[in-house]
């Protein structure tokens, strides 16, 4: 029996890898992408616009440099809509929905919403005890409740088109790494959300996809941004906890980043991720899960980590990572 199961799985994997790709036409199709100020969302918005999709790109600020570049760099400017939207604000999400619904149905475009890409997110780095409740609640509000809030709002339009929902997650949604506890928790949650939603939406012809990068150098991974975030987290930490950890200078905080950098080398080719995001939107038969990784060695490490027992993984992290406590 086990041999038959193994052969079946192997054949399915080979078929998925080598089957010819069939791409849907972009004509008459619109895509909503959150978090397009910078990084993956910004690049994806321009790429899909170049492919002929009508793109609704949400940004935190419509006056930001990233927002202005979306308009100036778009190959088809009339098909690039930049919308100010904070995924943590229900009224802003509803306002964005009203805008999209109006333009799809009443402005004569004749398009329908084919895909929703939940890309907006924030990084959280630091030990579990550090920071205030408000700080980690924000991480959950953006990374977890944000995609849920946006999906619930736009799902009727996606269901109508029999389109797809693409959720940007992370490989850290599959296993947890210190000191990214809050970030890992939110990504685990979105994977569970995606798996459940995919099964619920199957009868409606809606596909749900996760894209789970294994660490890339975007604005979230910028060294100065990470240090500033860690400093804010430390300043909000209770004095008695600060005393236990023994840190009192920014130099000590830099050591945490240096240790993390030694263990996790982020990829630099962002197009690897954008290619998978684009395939998830454009492919008639997208994968359920994409795991973009930069480099052969990184791919091998991810493959090993995903398959070894948790006890082994604990030991590996213990040997390779220093505790935040000196």
Automatic annotation (TrEMBL):
Q: Where is the signal peptide?
A: 1-17
Top-rank taxon of the source lineage equals: Eukaryota
Keywords for this protein: Oxidoreductase, Signal
GO MF, one example: oxidoreductase activity
Looking up SUPFAM superfamilies in the UniProt record yields: NAD(P)-binding Rossmann-fold domains
Entries under InterPro entries matching the protein: NAD(P)-bd_dom_sf (IPR036291), Sc_DH/Rdtase_CS (IPR020904), SDR_fam (IPR002347)
Q: Which Pfam families match?
A: adh_short
Query: A GO term (biological process) for this protein?
Result: steroid metabolic process
Family listed: Belongs to the short-chain dehydrogenases/reductases (SDR) family.
Under which name does UniProt file this protein? Uncharacterized protein
Which source organism does the UniProt entry give?
A: Medioppia subpectinata
